[in-house]
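Chain A, query sequence.
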Amino acid sequence: MNKRKEMVAGYAMIAPAILLYLMVGLVTLLFSIWIAFQHVNAGSLISSAKFAGFDNFKDFLWGGDSVATGMFFSAIKNNLIIAASLIVIVIPLSLVLAVLLQNIRWFAKGFRTIFLIPMVTASVAIFYVWQGIYDPAGALNTTLSAFGLDALVAKNGWLGEINTALPAIIAQTCWGAIPATLILYVAGLQSVDTHLYESADIDGATALQKLLHITWPVLRPITAIAVIMTINGAMQIFDNIWLMTKGGPAGSTQVVNVLVYQDAFASGKLSRANAMGWTVFLVTFLFSLISLKALRSKT
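Chain A, predicted structure.
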């Protein structure tokens, strides 16, 4: 009887949260899906919406609107470039830093604090600092000039030139993404039984053998989580690009979320913007499943 009362009390305590989710989260989600299959523009009454079928998806996926199609595929290409760059740079670098932090004894807590600064600093402030670094008269150009590397200086700023804008965004995004991945790897390394390493040393195992047979089995599922988090973050990237470049110059840093925002609030095409958002969700979900399957631990 007491267990039943505890169960009822537990459900009663979480009921407000569930109700709030159903009212705000789930209803909004379903409403967004509904709009994606309707003809609804900004300022229009919902009652005037007309069923559009797959017309909104056709606009940017199958050439219904050639301009929108070109912009969408260019934007999603940039998203995928950012995702691939983050996976190749952030995950290995985070693992190396985690190993170093695991073995450092002097000022270990201080180093961990330094690496976590991007997580605790206001993102808007960070973006403006990086914007200043990339400015024509910013720290990066000044440093290159000081070392006599004037040929590498971006005269219009690193965010103002087509060839350098996206790499500059990727560098800033990598810097901001390292802390979360680093935390995962530090936690994973701390869960490895040190006696296993001692036994391996006694048996004459090499560093590579210890990495493959002791460390990697623990870090493999963590890496899967890190890859999925990285893909999700890259496909949802918005705030730094919106504040730093707004997708420019000439669309070189345009990503899907910026395109969705512009489509919804600048062009007023709410239905097509929602359709784009759900398309990106499906692409992200697909890549996450592929990553999970590829890195899933074998039992």
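Strands lie at 38-39, 50-51. The chain has a mean pLDDT of 86.
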